[in-house]
Amino acid sequence: MTLNKDLFLSQLDDAMIEALRHVHVNVPWKLFPDYLQVVLDLRINIEIGIEGDQLDGTPRSMFQSTAEKLHRNGCGITLHGPFWDLSPGSSDRLVRQASQFRYHQLFDLVEIFEPIQVVCHTGYDPNHHGNDHRFYLDRSLAVWEPIAGRAETYGVPLLFENVWEQGPELHRDLFGRLNGHHFGFCLDVGHQHTFSNTSLGTWIAALGDFLKEVHMHDNDGLGDDHLPVGQGTIDFGSLFRLLHERSIKPVLTLEPHREEHFAESLAGLVKVMHLE
After folding, report:
1. Measuring CA to CA, which residue among 208, 206, 196 is closest to residue 234?
2. Domains of the chain, with CATH numbers?
3. What is the arithmetic mean of pLDDT over 19-30?
4. Is this model's pTM higher than 0.90 or not?
5. Does 93 have pLDDT greater than 90?
6. How many of the other CB atoms lie within 10 Å of CB of 118?
7. Of 15, 100, 206, 232, which has the fewest beta carbons less than 10 angstroms from its beta carbon?
8. Alpha-carbon span 206 to 23, nearest angstrom
9. What is the predicted pLDDT for the residue at 31?
10. What is the rounded (10 degree) CA torsion for 64, 75, 216, 133?
11. What whole-number distance in Å separates Cα of residue 220 and Cα of residue 106?
12. Mean pLDDT of 155-180
């Protein structure tokens, strides 16, 4: 069912609408038919989440027409690549090949959407791959190097997001071994708060020079709940102080997983960024 636009807009006050100017909002491609008109009307900057079956099944013309509408309305765009079951550092050669194929499909869309940057996951899970990430990283480099090369060619940064990584070491090692300059780090504070045993300050100290995007959602530290900003136990005040101290100005991206969480996240963002 298509979104009730009037009801949706009635939940937003002037401060929330002003907050939209400061962020991107994740919109999965599969939900675009429901939300595209609201995105266009409010000129929402978006992060488009694209999954593997959509890369296979969506006509290029549909991607093209959507991109034209977004650009015509002045909507900034970032892309979030597929990640389910992808493992660029897998011990299985065919899994690595399938992962790289998906990333190439994703970068085929860069010329269409002209995104500010592209976000991918490393696919590393210490519970599955072990606490020593070196072998995983060694295998993944052959997958990432040509993708990073395409990022360099397009002049669009390829960002690596933290998920299950316990600390920043894998990302630091990866950045030290990739060629070029068009890559960086996407800090997901919800993942860091739930899955990492390393403090937020340590992550930012280690990767601040590469930090180009922050995914904003909340939780209580026990699960990746994607709650609205301010409804969990993440210290967003400390986050913004750390960014300010290092003069880092990343793209901020809200990732609501429920429709009602969109307005609630904006309200929380207004408070933590002092936008009242």
Report:
1. 196
2. 5-272 (3.20.20.150)
3. 93
4. yes
5. yes
6. 27
7. 15
8. 24
9. 93
10. 40
11. 33
12. 96
Token match 């880092």: residue? 248
Mention every residue, 6+ apart, whose C-beta is less than 8 A from residue 152. 179, 180, 181, 182
DSSP letter, residue 208: G
- Determine the Cα angle at 189 with ends 236 and 126, to 5°: 150
Q: Average pLDDT, stretch 7-16?
A: 81
Tokens standing for 263? Answer: 């307005």
CA distance 123 to 136: 9
CA–CA dist 212, 187 (Å, integer): 8
pLDDT one-digit tens code per residue, 206-251: 999 999 999 999 999 999 999 999 999 999 999 999 999 999 999 9
Query: Between residues 180 and 62, which one has the greater pLDDT?
Result: 62
What's the Cα-to-Cα distance from 108 to each of 94, 101, 202, 238, 257, rounded to whole Å? 21, 11, 35, 38, 27
Check: CB of residue 238 under 8 Å from CB of residue 185: no
- In the block, which residue shows the tokens 């997958």? 143
Paired tokens of 118? 């592209």
123 close to 83: Cβ distance less than 8 angstroms: yes
Please state the φ and ψ torsions of residue 71, each to the nearest 5 degrees. Answer: -65, -40
- 81-102 as b/e, with b when 16 or more CB fall inside 10 Å? bbbeebbbbbeeeebbebbbeb
- Both tokens assigned to 217: 């959602």
Which pLDDT belongs to residue 123?
A: 97
Q: What's the pLDDT at 275?
A: 54
